[in-house]
Write a structure and sequence with these properties.
Layout (H helix, E strand, L loop, with lengths): L4 H11 L11 H9 L6 E9 L5 E12 L2 E6 L1 H11 L6 E5 L5 E18 L2 E17 L11 H26 L7 H8 L1 H7 L3 H7 L1 E12 L21 H14 L3
Parallel strand pairs: 6-7
Antiparallel strand pairs: 1-2, 2-3, 4-5, 5-6
Helix pairs in contact: 3-4, 5-6
Length: 261
Amino acid sequence: MAKIPAYGIADVIEESQVNSRAAVVRIQEYARDLSEASIQPVTSRLTLYEDKSGKKGVKASGTTVFREYRMIGFLNEEETRGLLWVRGKVKGCIVSVPVEDEKQLAMEVSRADSKITPEIDGKNIKIKIKIDVAGNIGEVQDKKLDLNNPQVIPGLEVKLAEAVGGEVWAAINRARDMDADIFGFGEKVRRKYPRQWREYKNGWDDLFRTASIEVSINVTLERTGKIINPAHPVIGFAGMENFPKPLMELKLQERRLRRVV
């Protein structure tokens, strides 16, 4: 709908932040990464598509990786979201995991943070990545899943953490295949260990490929959305017969207002 195609493409890239399937990179970020020897710059990847009616369009899908001014490869949508998890740039998305009988559970991510901590022990380098994700249950296809059971929610959080971890490792493995530190691990090492970095910087591509990486992910489900079974039961009313009548009527009214429909 944009009168100028470039504006329309810019809108497409901005809107891709909703599902975190493409990297949104400002020109300042690209220039900064280009000036650093320890990180390879990335940009959004644009692809052409054609719908069922034959109409063609442009969409942002995945990430393009550069070394200096040359393109060296791509990340697909799953790998791109893994990159964004590590960089702490996931603005919002839907994470789906199978539960039972191939039915799906969907989590709407509300916020995500990450922390990258390098450690040097002798000649060994370890990169620790800690990712915290908070979200709401958006959809549960399995009607037998009892969200009133306090033991169910932690199990779902573990499944979702495993799904996030799969995307993170997909991005790490793809980056290592390209010998491209797109996460900024080298920059973290330089800032924490400036003296050792003088020795590491010339051979960082090799060190990035062989460094030990530890990923820890914590997922917290905060709400359940509009579903039949709430994650936390409505306040109980055992012993209401002992309440004074005005208070009992107030509690009954509150219960009607809180009833899940």
